[in-house]
Amino acid sequence: MTITTTTIKNSYSGDGSQDTFAYSFKITADADIQVIIRSAAGTETVKTITTHYTVTGAGAASGGNVVFTTGNVPTATETVVLRRNTTQTQTLDLVENDPFTADSVEGAFDKNLSITQELQEQVDRSIKISRTNTMTSTDFTTSATDRASKILAFDSAGEISVTQELGTYRGDWSASTAYNARDIVKDTSTNNIFICTTSHTSSGSQPLTSNTDSAKWSLLVDAASATTSASTATTKASEAASSATAAASSASSASTQASNASTSASTASTQATNAASSATAAASSATSAASSFDDFDDTYLGAKSSAPSVDNDGDALATGALYFNTTTDALNVWNGSAWVAIAADTDVKVAVSSNDTTAGFLNGKLVAGDGIDLTEGSDGGNETLTVAIEGEVVQKDVQTTFTKSQVASTETATISTNKTLDFDTYQNFILTLGSGANTLVNPTTEASQIGQTGVIILIQPSSSSAGTVSLGTDYETVGGAGLTLSSTNSAYDIVPYVVKADNSILIGSPQLAFS
After folding, report:
1. Burial degree of 459 (CB within 10 A; 0-12, 13-18, 19+)
2. With contact defined as beta carbons under 8 Å apart, do 504 and 476 qualify?
3. Cβ(443)–Cβ(465) under 8 Å?
4. pLDDT in tens, 325-356
5. What is the pLDDT of residue 369?
6. pLDDT tens digits, residue range 71-115?
C-alpha cells in the first residue's frame, strides 16, 4: 500500500494514570517503534519493549497503541514521545525466476521511504546554515585533549572554531572547597586570578602556583606582574627625564666651552655630538616609558564611580583590565564579558543582598529584635559585635519567676455532633453540648504536647434534652467508665485532662453541676 503521511512521531503528556497512548503511523513490526520518556528536567530515557511497554497494531496503516506495563505509567511531569524507528536493513531477496509479487516490492519501497522520513526528521532537528548562507567547512581538527572543557564558536571569518572556556567567578580561593572545571578564583596572596581546569576539593595553602593542586589551575590575570610592570614603567620614565636633563646640561656646557676657547673647538664639537646622541637616547627612553605607561593605563583604568565600557583611550576593554569603583569601594576585573568585583583583604562595608542599594558596616546592618541586645566591643581596635538575649526574655532551659499571671489559650465552641480538640493550639476548652449524643473524636495534635494539662468545660444546652459525650479510643477515663455528666439545662461540668503520650489522653472525673 502507499504511504500518504509524513508523520512519524506522536507526543503526549503523562498524568500518572493513563497507560495507553496511540501512534498514528504504520509500523511493520512491534520493534519498529521507539518509546522515549522525557522528564521535567529534560532527561530522556529510551524504554524497553516488554519490560516497560507492549505494542499493538503493527502492520495497520492507521497505527495502533503503546501500552505501558504496571509500575511504568508516565507521571504528570513526564512527556511521552512515540517515534517510528525502522530497522535499517534490506531483507527482500529477489531470486531469478521466482515470483515477483507487487506486495514484496511495495513493502521494500515502503520500508525505504520510512527510513528516508526518519532521517529527514533527524535532519529537521539538526543545526544547519540556511540555503542562501555559506561556510567554507563545518570540520574542525582540534583534538579531544585540546578542546576539552572549551566551547564551539565562530572565528573572525565566520568559520567554526574551538575557543577558550567560559568560567564562573567563585571569589577568594579557600581550602576544603569543592571547585568545578571553569571556576574562577582570586589568589589573595598575589592578587592573581586563576581558572580551574580540573574539578577537585581544594587543600593546602596559597599561593596557588606552589599549591599541591597547582596543576589543576591556570593563570588568567597576572596581577603581580602587572604591578611590577607599572612600577618599572614609572622608574624608567623618571630615569628618562633625568637623562634628558643631563643631556641638556651637557649641551649647554659644550656651547659655553666652544665660545670661550677656540683652541678647544674640536673637543667641544665632539662633546656636542655626544650630548645630542644622549638626548636622542633619552627621548627614545621617554617614548618607551610613555608606551609602557599607556599599556599599563589600558590595564589599570584608575578610580571611577561606575563601571567603564571602554578603556582610557576609548578602545575595547582587554580581558584582565582593572579599575577601582569609588561607589562600592571595590577593585573590579574584566573577565572578557563582565566586570567582577574582587573582595579586599581589609575591612569593608557589606550589603545584605545583591539588591541592597547602600552598603554599610556590620553594626549598622544588624537590627536587634525584641529581647535582643547588640553590643560593640573594643571600639577602634579588634572590634567585636556581641548578640545577647535581654534579661526579661523567657528561656526554655532557665527557671523563670513571673511577676504577672499567665493566661493559657482557650477554645470556646459549640458541638453539633462531633468535635476534634486541637491540643497544639489550645490548652483549655469550653464546649457547649448539643442535645443528645456528642462525640470527642480522636485528636491528631497531641504527639507534640506530651505533658500538657488543662480542663475541658462541658456546658449542657440551655433548653431541650441534655447532651451526653462519647470518647474516641485515644481518651482514657478512670476504670474505663467513660464520662457521666449532669443533665440540668445550662449546667457546667469541669473535666481535667493530661496528655500522657501520643494517642493517650488521660481524663479525670468530672466536677459536676456548676451553674
Report:
1. buried
2. yes
3. no
4. 999 888 888 889 998 887 644 455 666 676 78
5. 73
6. 999 999 999 999 999 988 888 888 888 887 887 787 788 888 888
- Three-state secondary structure of 299-362: HEEEEECCCCCECCCCCECCCCCEEEECCCCEEEEECCCCEEEECCCCCCCECCCCCCCCCECH
Tell how strand 183-187 and strand 168-172 pair up. Answer: parallel
For residue 276, which phi and psi values (nearest 5 degrees)?
-60, -40
Peptide bond between residue 510 and the one before it cis (omega within 30 degrees of 0)? no
- Bridge partners of residue 322, in order along the sequence: 300, 333
Cell matching residue 343: 573582595
Provide φ and ψ at 8, rounded to 5°.
Answer: -130, 5
Q: What sign does the dihedral 99-100-101-103 (CA atoms) show? A: positive
Yes or no: say if 346 and 338 are a contact pair by the CB < 8 Å rule.
Answer: no
CA–CA distance, 388 with 405 (Å, rounded to integer): 26
Q: Give the CA count within 13 Å in the CB-facing half-sphere of 474.
A: 21
- Cα separation, 299 vs 317, in Å, equals 9
Percentage helix, strand, coil for the chain under 3-state DSSP, each rounded to 5: 25, 30, 45
CB distance 80 to 11 below 8 Å: yes
Task: Tell me how far apart the alpha carbons of residues 117 and 461 are, in angstroms, rounded to a whole number.
Answer: 81
Cα gap 452→281, rounded to integer Å:
96
**264 CB burial (10 A radius; 0-12, 13-18, 19+):** middle
Alpha carbon 148 to its chain's center = 24
How far is CA 462 from its chain centroid?
Answer: 64
Burial of 187-203, coded b for 16+ CB within 10 Å and e otherwise, reads: bbebbbbbbbbeebebe
- The span from the CA of 327 to the CA of 307, in Å, is 10
**DSSP per-residue codes, 376-422:** EESTTSS-EEEEEE-TTS--TTS----SS-----EEEEE-SSEE---
d(CA 84, CA 36): 11
Q: HSE, CB side, 13 Å, CA atoms: give it for residue 315.
A: 10
Q: Tell me the pTM.
A: 0.35
**By three-state DSSP, how is residue 138 classified?**
coil
